[in-house]
Amino acid sequence: MHRAARPRQAATLVVYREGKAGTEILMGRRAGRHRFMPDFYVFPGGRLDPADYRTKPLTPLRPEVHEQLSRSGGARQAQALAIAAVRETYEETGLALGEPDAGAEGRLRPSLAPLDYILRAITPPTSPIRFHARFFAVEARHVGGSLKGNGELLDLDWRPIDECLRLPVADVTEFLLRRLQERKGERPEGVPLFSFRGGKARVRVPT
């Protein structure tokens, strides 16, 4: 009998801006050497690191965002997940939401106040590598630096949502892109949970 792998805690950041063709999203392609979702286009992100618990942010999460995050992991993990999303984005894209840490070269002191919490997702039980991921969003005007990948994400660029939807993306990525497309600049009510049951995707939106 197949025993499902335990999901690892992870965080993702959707960076968006308004362009001539509407909302543009920053996405890149995972290299073919990756075991998890090779050659798929994704948002920057990755696993929660123990150091994320020790990092002191410049600004905290907004109270309502912190409260929403805390429901599925507690207050301490809530902040660490937000820090992980910002850190991974900085490492993978060169874009910084915060300021360089004077005491640790190459590290960032993140600013968490601009973050919105927009989705929670759990990888299917049949996947050999599983993640329990929280998706955050931030407008590009809050980030600084020049776009430069570290090799983790290829073909890294800003793309209109319609173009993103034509790329090879996972079902959860497609769901989130369409949700962003429909929200028309407004923050959606509730944070959906995207998960799987009986091999089929299911979405539950808290009321």
Summarize the structure in words:
This protein is α+β, with helices and mostly antiparallel strands and 207 residues long. The chain has a single domain (8-204), classed as Alpha-Beta Complex (Nucleoside Triphosphate Pyrophosphohydrolase). The chain is 24% helix and 32% strand. The protein contains five helices and eleven strands. Strands 1, 2, 3, 4, 7, 8, 9, 10 and 11 form a nine-stranded mixed β-sheet that branches. A hairpin with a 7-residue loop joins strand 5 and strand 6 (108-110). Helix 2 (63-70) packs across helix 3. The chain is globular, with a radius of gyration of 16 Å. The protein starts with 7 loop residues before the first strand and ends with a strand. The model has no long low-confidence stretch (mean pLDDT 89).
In short:
The protein is of the alpha+beta class and 207 residues long. Helices cover 24% and strands 32% of the residues. It has one domain (8-204): Nucleoside Triphosphate Pyrophosphohydrolase.
